[in-house]
Design a protein that fits this description.
Elements: H1 5-12, H2 21-24, E1 30-36, E2 41-44, H3 46-51, H4 73-87, E3 91-99, E4 105-116, E5 122-131, H5 140-154, H6 162-169, H7 173-184, H8 188-206, H9 211-217, H10 223-234, H11 238-244
Antiparallel strand pairs: 1-2, 1-5, 3-4, 4-5
Helix pairs in contact: 5-6, 6-7, 9-10
């Protein structure tokens, strides 16, 4: 987007660069950060400090993700950063299961964008990771799709098409998508993906079932498709994730 004269005039009057740090400190369910070309944190919000089990922001500044998050997940987040910094390509609305230093897990939607200098070179990145809260099952919006959500949760191993799910709810595909987005902050496809991944993670953690068996039972056509989706969502292959538990 081209910088207009009014934008230039406005930003030139600021006493210091605007990072959004104070604004994002107000949001407890959203992690915000800016990193330099080396993948080191230069700006963080308070939510990220708490997720890392730290007390003060200065404990994060100048450090990389692999120095703050438990292995192997810290290395995964660092590799993701390096891809954005190297290729200059954004990560948009990526559904991820995050693992925190406390041992807790949480589903997030992650966005990372490259930051460029005046010559167009990538010199850092800015990112947010939004927590996905449990849906309010007592809301009127939820009641209209409750049976369909239950169908997804009990039949995730089957082929689930959005248009067919919408028909079950008595809604058009567009209406169904809008309602799912409003309730879960996910697309219908992402909701199906989340349910499948939750069950896959549970199976890998609690059983010794073969990975191909888990893949087929969770609605994937083959082990390769399952592995690709699992790696994108969890950051590890299914076998790597199972190994990390020991």
């Amino acid at each position: 987007m081209a910088i207009t004269e009014s934008q230039t005039e406005f930003f030139s009057q600021l006493a210091e660069p605007f990072t959004g740090e104070a604004l994002f400190d107000c949001l407890a369910d959203l992690v915000f950060f800016i990193k330099n070309q080396r993948g080191e944190y230069v700006v963080v919000n308070q939510a990220l400090v708490e997720r890392c089990g730290c007390r003060e922001k200065r404990e994060l500044i100048g450090r990389r993700a692999d120095e703050l998050f438990p292995s192997p997940f810290g290395e995964i987040y660092r590799a993701q950063d390096e891809s954005v910094l190297r290729n200059g390509s954004a990560i948009l609305n990526q559904l991820e299961l995050h693992f925190y230093s406390s041992g807790a897990r949480g589903w997030c939607l992650t966005n990372k964008l490259p930051l460029r200098d005046r010559a167009g070179r990538v010199i850092g990145l800015v990112g947010i990771s939004k927590d996905l809260q449990a849906a309010n099952e007592r809301s009127e919006d939820y009641s209209r799709v409750a049976k369909v959500v239950q169908h997804i949760q009990t039949n995730f191993g089957e082929q689930l098409r959005v248009n067919k799910l919408a028909e079950r709810a008595g809604l058009s595909a567009y209406q169904f998508e809008q309602r799912i987005r409003k309730i879960f902050h996910l697309t219908a496809g992402q909701l199906v993906q989340k349910v499948r991944m939750e069950n896959a993670v549970r199976r890998l953690r609690e059983t010794e079932d073969a990975i191909v068996e888990v893949a087929l039972d969770c609605g994937y056509s083959d082990q390769s498709a399952f592995t690709r989706q699992f790696r994108q969502t969890i950051g590890l292959s299914p076998s790597e994730y199972r190994t990390s538990l020991h």
